[in-house]
Write a structure and sequence with these properties.
MutS, DNA mismatch repair protein, domain I, five-stranded antiparallel sheet, globular, DNA polymerase, domain 1, 358 residues, single chain, Alpha-Beta Plaits, 13 helices, alpha+beta, 38% helix, binds magnesium ion
Length: 358
C-alpha cells in the first residue's frame, strides 16, 4: 500500500512517571504510580500513568487507584504535577516541529509528523533516530516511534516495541506487519467489538482484512466498512497542522464500565484540574465547558455550557463539569468521560484580573 506519504507517530514512554523520575532521581528504577491519592486503598480516581516497574506488578493507566494500591502497596504513589508535564511536553513538541511543518499533536505526549519530505523510508528512519536522540539528550526521556505510510499504521507501529522502540513499516511491509496482530491493536476496537469479532472467529487484523466486507457491514454498519479498510492499513487521514489551539481537552477511558457517579465525578475533577493548569500556564481563559460521556456500547453524548464571561478559575470548571455530568448520567454504565474547555481567549498580563486565576 503506497500512499506516497511518510508519517511518523511519536509516543513518550510512561510520560508522567518518567518526568517525575527525571525531577526526583530517587524514583528511577522504582514502581512509580502517578494519579489520584490511593488513601491506603480507599481512594477514588484512577492511575494516570505508571512506570514500567509498576506495570510489572500488573498496574496500568486508567485502573482505579485503589486497585493499583492493592496490587502493589509499596509502589511510590505521586500526585500529578501538570505544570511540569506541560512544560516538558511543550519542549518535546518544539523538537518535533523543527523537523516538519506538518505536525499534529494528539495528546500531551503524542504527536504525528508528516516527514514525506525525507524522500524515502531509510532517510525517514534516520530522522526518527535523530528525534529520539535529541529528546533523550535534552529531556532525559525515552519515547517510541512508528514510521509508516499512513497514520493508523504509524500509531500501531509506535506501540509495537515499547519502551524506547523504533518500528519502521515500509509500504510493501504494511500487510505483513499488521496481519498477525490482534484486532484490538486497531484504535477504536475495544473489548466489546473485539469480543463480537471473536464470536465471528475474527481474531487477528489479517482475519479482519480477509472477511467479506458485506458481512462486516451487516454486523457493524459503517463502522464495519471503516474497520475493514483500517485492517488493510488504508487510512488517508492527513496530518493536520493546527494554528495554535482552539480548545483544551482531556479524557479518561475506564478499564471497566462504571455507573459509580462519585468515582466519575472524582475523575472529572482531575481532568478539570489538568486542563485548568495547562491553560493557566499559557495565560488562556475559557468560556465554554463540554462534558462527553461514552456509554457502554459506544453511544456518545455531550453537553456544553457557555459562561457569560471568560474565566480561568479551576473551581468553576470543576463545578460546571459536575453539573453537566449529572445531566448526562442516566443509570447506564459509562466507558469514557471527557472534558473540553473552548472559546478560549488569550489574555496579556495587564488585562488579567486577579480573581481569574484563583
Ligand atoms: Mg505515552
Amino acid at each position: 500500500m503506497n500512499t506516497g506519504r511518510i508519517i511518523l507517530h511519536l509516543d513518550m514512554d510512561s510520560f508522567y512517571a518518567s518526568v517525575e523520575a527525571g525531577e526526583h532521581p530517587e524514583l528511577k528504577g522504582k514502581p512509580v504510580v502517578v494519579g489520584a491519592d490511593p488513601k491506603g486503598g480507599t481512594g477514588r480516581g484512577v492511575v494516570s500513568t505508571c512506570s514500567y516497574e509498576a506495570r510489572a506488578c500488573g498496574i496500568h493507566s486508567a485502573m482505579p487507584i485503589s486497585r493499583a494500591y492493592n496490587l502493589c502497596p509499596d509502589a511510590i504513589f505521586v500526585r500529578p504535577s501538570f505544570p511540569l508535564y506541560n512544560a516538558a511536553s511543550r519542549r518535546i513538541m518544539e523538537i518535533l516541529k523543527r523537523r516538519s511543518g506538518k505536525f499534529q499533536q494528539v495528546s500531551i505526549d503524542e504527536a504525528f509528523l508528516d516527514i514525506s519530505s525525507s524522500g524515502d523510508f531509510r532517510a525517514a528512519a534516520e530522522t526518527a533516530l535523530e528525534i529520539r536522540r535529541e529528546i533523550l539528550e535534552k529531556e532525559g526521556l525515552t519515547c517510541s516511534i512508528g514510521v509508516a505510510p499512513a497514520k493508523i499504521v504509524a500509531k500501531i507501529a509506535s506501540d509495537y516495541r515499547k519502551p524506547d522502540g523504533l518500528t519502521v513499516v515500509a509500504p510493501e511491509e504494511v500487510e505483513n506487519f499488521l496481519f498477525p496482530l490482534p484486532v484490538g491493536k486497531i484504535p477504536g476496537i475495544g473489548k466489546k467489538t473485539g469480543a463480537e469479532l471473536a464470536s465471528m472467529d475474527i481474531r487477528t487484523i489479517g482475519d479482519l482484512a480477509g472477511t467479506d466486507i458485506q458481512v462486516l457491514i451487516g454486523r457493524f454498519g459503517r463502522w464495519g466498512l471503516h474497520m475493514h479498510s483500517l485492517a488493510h492499513g488504508a487510512d488517508d487521514d492527513e496530518v493536520l497542522e493546527r494554528e495554535g489551539y482552539k480548545s483544551a481537552s482531556r479524557e479518561s477511558t475506564f478499564e471497566q464500565d462504571t455507573d459509580d457517579s462519585r468515582f466519575l465525578a472524582a475523575v472529572l475533577d482531575e481532568l478539570a484540574d489538568d486542563i485548568s493548569q495547562g491553560l493557566k500556564k499559557d495565560g488562556v481563559l475559557w468560556k465554554t465547558a463540554t462534558v462527553k460521556v461514552r456509554y457502554q456500547g459506544f453511544l456518545t453524548h455531550t453537553r456544553s455550557r457557555t459562561m457569560d464571561r471568560s474565566t480561568g478559575d479551576s473551581a468553576t470548571l470543576r463545578a460546571i463539569a459536575r453539573v453537566l455530568l449529572a445531566e448526562l448520567l442516566d443509570g447506564r454504565k459509562v466507558r469514557l468521560i471527557g472534558l473540553r474547555a473552548s472559546t478560549l481567549e488569550k489574555v496579556d498580563n495587564a488585562q488579567r484580573r486577579i480573581d481569574d486565576f484563583f
